[in-house]
Amino acid sequence: MKKQRAEKEGISEEKSGALFAGELLRWNRYDNGRQMPWKGEKDPYKIWLSEIMLQQTRVEQGLKYYQNFLSAFPDVHSLAGAPDEKVFKLWEGLGYYSRCRNLLQTARYISGELNGVFPQTYQEILSLKGIGSYTAAAIASFAYNLPYAVLDGNVFRVLARIFDKETPIDSTAGKKEFAALAQRILPAENAGEYNQAIMDFGATVCKPLPVCQDCFFNASCLAYRAGKTQLLPVKEKQTRLKERWLNFFLVRCGNEVLVQQRTGKDVWQGLHQFFLIETEKAKKAKTLLSLFQQESGINEYAVQEEWKETQVLSHQRIHFCFFLAQVKRKKNVAGYQWMSLAQMQQLAFPKTLKQIIQTHLV
After folding, report:
1. How many CA atoms lie within 13 A of 148 on its CB side?
2. Which of 247, 259, 238, 251 is nearest to 318 (CA)?
3. For a FRET experiment, which of 23, 167, 262, 265 has its CA 20 to 30 Å from that of 343?
4. Tens digit of pLDDT for each residue in 9-54?
5. DSSP 159
6. Is 347 helix (H, G, I), strand (E, B) or coil?
7. 276 and 260 in contact (C-beta within 8 Å)?
8. φ, ψ (nearest 5 deg) of residue 111
């Protein structure tokens, strides 16, 4: 229906797409002031590193991590040979730690199995651990100018508005429709530049709250002409957050604290934590202290502080309850070890726990 309407108005979707691509490239060359250290980069290692770090992460937050990683690991061999703990420590605070685990696995595969040579075809890049269709298209186009269209949140939003697409972007039909559209209008000879340009355009002009008055394409944008920019793109699902209650006991004896590394396939896998009791719902302090005694075997302690915090992750809402407990004598607790504050500073902790170390232990 939308395609028919556009054609009735004298312009086909294909022609509109070609016109938009041309105008976008001109905007990118003369008016796009967005600066990032990886823009124009041709080294696939650096492109891969930036793309992995920017998944689910704001550019402003990821920039410092990207620079620190390049300083510590200037090539894939140096990353592959680094100890896990060093890599996780540099990643600390960036979140979504499965990205870091996949990063290490892929680096070691490229270094060991491919002699450090990054794959040069889309399918080979796509086969790497932790790389999906978007990241594969980004690396293939930026490093090798291969004609593969990127499709991230910014691109979904731009295409939905320019072409007035109401198919939900999180539906199977929507993903197929937008992927086909993105590929059709991609100028193959300028794939890398175009992909970077449309992402920049979505981040600076066609934002969730767009600045349509500054848009070079507002006269032709179907959503703008119909007064629908705020209604697009459409999503059919809303993420339901899983509620979790994590009760941490900072058990301290002198300058040492009970610490454990998370090993299960769960949030923060591989990071460190304090003595933990997870409950199905909020519990009173008296109940939690009783559980602490039962599970730790520690009966003589003094609670110096108790406080609560909340953190929202992509699919979980974490309700934290913290107890700072002082003991006079160290007791061995299965699965945990006593560590000095100096030792803890070298380990990676989840963001909230890292802040607790700085505010309540140091």
Report:
1. 21
2. 247
3. 265
4. 556 888 999 999 999 999 999 999 999 999 999 999 999 999 999 9
5. H
6. coil
7. yes
8. -70, -45
